[in-house]
């Protein structure tokens, strides 16, 4: 009973953190701040899904956690490369 309450409080805090990061994505002063906020949103989503998985006593969401982790990593790398070079994929002709 108390464990479920703690998980629900943690989920609420994670949702507030996602909302704060969404504000940083919209109002960020630079592109690097926006990329960092998007990466933080990905991490918070992974933690939220893991908490839901523990709360519902299921392992069905583990594939989703892995998928979001991979996509978040690839997205962060692509945004960082775009900020650094101005293009994600270089084509040599």
UniProtKB/TrEMBL annotation:
The chain crosses the membrane at residues 6-25, 61-83. It is found in: Cell membrane. Keywords: Antiport, Cell membrane, Ion transport, Membrane, Transmembrane, Transmembrane helix, Transport. Coiled coil: none annotated. InterPro entries: MrpF/PhaF-like. Pfam families: MrpF_PhaF (PF04066). The keyword NAD does not apply. It is a multi-pass membrane protein. Belongs to the CPA3 antiporters (TC 2.A.63) subunit F family. PANTHER family: NA(+)/H(+) ANTIPORTER SUBUNIT F1, NA(+)_H(+) ANTIPORTER SUBUNIT F. This is Multicomponent Na+:H+ antiporter subunit F. It comes from Paenibacillus turicensis.
């Amino acid at each position: 009973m108390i464990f479920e309450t703690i998980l629900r409080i943690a989920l609420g805090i994670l949702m507030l953190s996602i909302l704060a990061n969404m504000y940083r994505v919209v109002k960020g002063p630079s592109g690097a701040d926006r990329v960092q906020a998007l990466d933080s949103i990905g991490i918070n989503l992974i933690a939220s899904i893991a908490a839901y998985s523990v709360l519902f006593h299921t392992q069905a969401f583990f594939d989703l956690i892995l998928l979001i982790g991979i996509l978040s990593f690839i997205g962060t790398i692509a945004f960082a490369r775009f900020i650094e070079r101005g293009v994600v994929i270089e084509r040599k002709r």
